[in-house]
Each structure stands twice: as C-alpha cells, then as structure tokens.
Amino acid sequence: MGAVPVWLRERRSGVGRPAERSRAEVTAAAIALADREGLAAVSMRRVAAELGTGAASLYRYVDSRDDLLDLMTDEVAAAYELPPPGPWLPGLLEVCRQGRELMRRHAWLPELVLTRSALGPHGTDLLEQVLEILAGHPADVGRKLEAFAVMNALTAALTLSELDVGARQRQGAYLAHAVAAGRHPHLTAALTGGSPVPAPHFEDTISRVLVGLLGE
Amino acid sequence: MGAVPVWLRERRSGVGRPAERSRAEVTAAAIALADREGLAAVSMRRVAAELGTGAASLYRYVDSRDDLLDLMTDEVAAAYELPPPGPWLPGLLEVCRQGRELMRRHAWLPELVLTRSALGPHGTDLLEQVLEILAGHPADVGRKLEAFAVMNALTAALTLSELDVGARQRQGAYLAHAVAAGRHPHLTAALTGGSPVPAPHFEDTISRVLVGLLGE
DNA sequence: CTCATTCGGGAACGGTGTTCGCGAACACCG
DNA sequence: CGGTGTTCGCGAACACCGTTCCCGAATGAG
C-alpha cells in the first residue's frame, strides 16, 4: 500500500458486522460540507458530525483525509455530460465549459484539481472520452495526454482566480501602489490606458491554447 | 485591513524597542525550512525554532501564516535574471524556463503559485519585464496580462506534476487497473501502443501555448 | 451457541494557528 | 538623570486538527 490509490482499496465484505454507512455517503457528506463552508471546514470531525457519528469511524471507509479529498474530486467528475461525437475543438471546449461550471458550483474543486491531480474512475472515464474526441486527430499519444492535463489545469487555474475575489482585491491594491510608485512604466501604461482592462473570455482563451497545442 | 496585502503593511519605525529580527530574516528561515522538509513543515513553531525564538514572536513580523507564504513566494521571484531585449517568444520562453528552474530548486513553490497567486514587489517587477518584452506586440492589454497568468500557472502545473512522483505512481496504478478492466478502448490503445508514451518537452509545450495565445 | 471478524467510536497523543497579556528594552523629553 | 510612551519577545492558553488505540457491540457462519 502507498502507491495504490483509494479506488483500488475497496471494501472487502462477507463476514463480520456490516457497515452502517458507505464510502459514497461519507463522500457526499464531505462534498455538502465543502460546498457550504469551504474546503478548510472539511475536517474528519466535521464530516463525521455531518453524519452523526464519531471521527474515528470514518477511518473504516477511508485511510486518510487526503483519500477523502480524492474521492470528492472524482465524485464531482461523475457529473460531466459528455458531448456527442463531432469535431474535436468544439468537443474539448464543451468539456472545459462543463468543467468550469462544475468548479463554479463547487468552489473548492479548483484547488484540489491543481494540487492533487488524482484520476479516479470518473476522471478516467473523462479521459477516455477526451481520447475518443481526439481519435481522428493526428497528434501522437503523448501530446493528447498532455492536452488533457493542460485543459484541466488551465480550467482550474482560470476558474480559481475568477472565484477568488479576495485575492483579486489584494492584487489590485498592490498594483495600484506599484503604479503610484512610478517605477513600472509598462505596467502603468497598461493599467491606466483608457478604459478598464478588457478581460478575455474563458472559452476564447482555452480555445487558443488548445489550437496552439494540437494545431488547427 | 484585509484587502491590503502584506507588502503594504510595512513596519513603521522610530520609537519603541527595536526588533531583533527582520521580515526578510523570517522569510529566509521559512524558505530554508521548506526547502529542507517541505511546505507542510513550515509551521509558525518550526520557523520560530529555526530562528531560536518563540512562535508568538513571528506575529510581530507577519500577520498570519498565509502572509508568510506570500512573502516566501515573492522572495523567490527575486531570483529571476531577466533576459535582454529581443523577440518576444524567446523572451517569454526564457522567463518560463527560469520559473521552472526556480520551482525545481524550491519544490514547494508550484503549490503556492497555483493556489495563491499573490503579486508582491518582485512578482510585479517580473510582470513589468514581461510587459516590456511584449511592448511591441499588437495584442491588447487584457490578453497580455492573461498570457502572464497562463504562463505562470502552466509552468507551475507542469513542474508540479513533474516533481510529484508519488502522484504519478498512484495514477499509473489506477490507469493500469482501468486498462485491465477493459472498458476504456481508447485509453488502452493509447497506453499499450508500442513504445512507452513519448512525453512532450516543457519548452515545446509552453511555446505552443504562447503562440496559440498571442499569435505567431 | 460459539466464534472469528468487522464496525463504532470515546479517549488520547502530538501537533497546529492564533491571541492574550506581561515584563523587558529602547528613544525621546523634561 | 528619571520618567514615559511605545514597541518587542514570548510563555501560556484556546480551540482546533489528523490519526491511532482499543474495547464493546454487532453480525454471519459453522
């Protein structure tokens, strides 16, 4: 054990006292809690309380908190409704659009996707679909797998900065200070040039990146 | 306060007992500790012990642990040695190449860059340089700023997965299982097709993404 | 009914970030 | 020199945290 992911350490069954809950129930409770109060609130004690049980009991279903986080991520990935076959670019864009939607619905997701890229059953299904969308594409396997990774990471990173208004405010505060200090001419020109900075749209950005990666 | 970043909450001075340490010293101790034992080891108590002092003392230099993490990130960004003026693509590639090198030297950096994108003085200098490199480029300001964000996020994400061998192993273990189960034809074809999957190189990937984003 | 086996979970261990408050150390002022 | 205002250092405490131990309870099999 150690190099073996959560999903392979399934519950054996048969003899003994039957469990009162399931891994899915624990995962759902954790997701509900994270949706309501953020990732930081997902502690073993809080999740257990959500289920009306004790913290130690959770370790019957999960080896560690990190395992639970992986389960949460993969569980959400079950909600992808994959697009019908068609040209690859619109197909991948739709996947990204849905990913962004999932992350907006679960504001804790981007952080998990970025810091622990764990492929569970649903994540694997998604990868399979992406490979199917790219089936006719001439790029080699390595590049396709990389496109998948870049898609996910970029969607998460862009959605995260989109959601984290606190960070944007602090950033703005410091940039304003830097401009006022006067030692950053290009930055000053960029930030004071006429209208408020036009923000590129998510789909446009992802689209350009994908085209750059996989060709027209 | 709250929307005001660490760097603007500078130490006022003059009267009173002089401080025995400096913010820079605290930051350096935290970086040394993180380099040696990882980000998880950077607790207020451990950093304080590194300096031979008590945990509570650190709060004279920093408002919270998160502030300290931001200081660490920005401090490392001081090490960029910016390329001489020239065509924009090689210039940006050099910036990314150096970013990757910094992240390999400080394995805790990618996580911080991905989850808390805080621009401090050195990060702002870097942004200024990137804007200078792009000074002659016809793209509008929004797209240039976005290119900066994408560059950073992608460099961090790629370097992180490069460094995190544990995750790659677990991933491999589960993918092997999925292939064995037989319900993922494209995935199976991709993973069993001839030689080991050819991994695209970092600079090539970043280059394609930048060209997609900013044009040839 | 016995028994191996599993589950539930209170209690405890060794951590964590942060706050409180007090004594000490200094710069300035009279 | 003696206050005095102000800051610094930091032990102690608070409210948590993840995880492990261990024992009693529950169960299905024989």
From TrEMBL, chains A, B:
Pfam families, A to Z:
TetR_C_1 (PF02909), TetR_N (PF00440)
What PROSITE patterns does UniProt report for this protein, alphabetically? HTH_TETR_2
* Protein's UniProt name: Regulatory protein, tetR family
Annotated HTH tetR-type domain residues: 20-80
Q: Which organism is it from?
A: Paractinoplanes atraurantiacus
List the GO molecular function terms. Answer: DNA-binding transcription factor activity; transcription cis-regulatory region binding
Note the coiled coil stretches, chain numbering: none
The entry's DNA-binding region feature spans 43-62
- Keywords of this entry: DNA-binding, Transcription, Transcription regulation
Q: Name one GO biological process term.
A: negative regulation of DNA-templated transcription
Q: Does the keyword Transcription regulation apply?
A: yes
Highest taxon of the lineage: Bacteria
Q: Which InterPro entries match?
A: Homeodomain-like_sf, HTH-type_TetR-like_transc_reg, HTH_TetR, Repressor_TetR_C, Tet_transcr_reg_TetR-rel_C_sf
Among Gene3D superfamilies, the record links this protein to: Homeodomain-like, Tetracycline Repressor, domain 2
Q: What is the lineage of its organism?
A: Bacteria, Bacillati, Actinomycetota, Actinomycetes, Micromonosporales
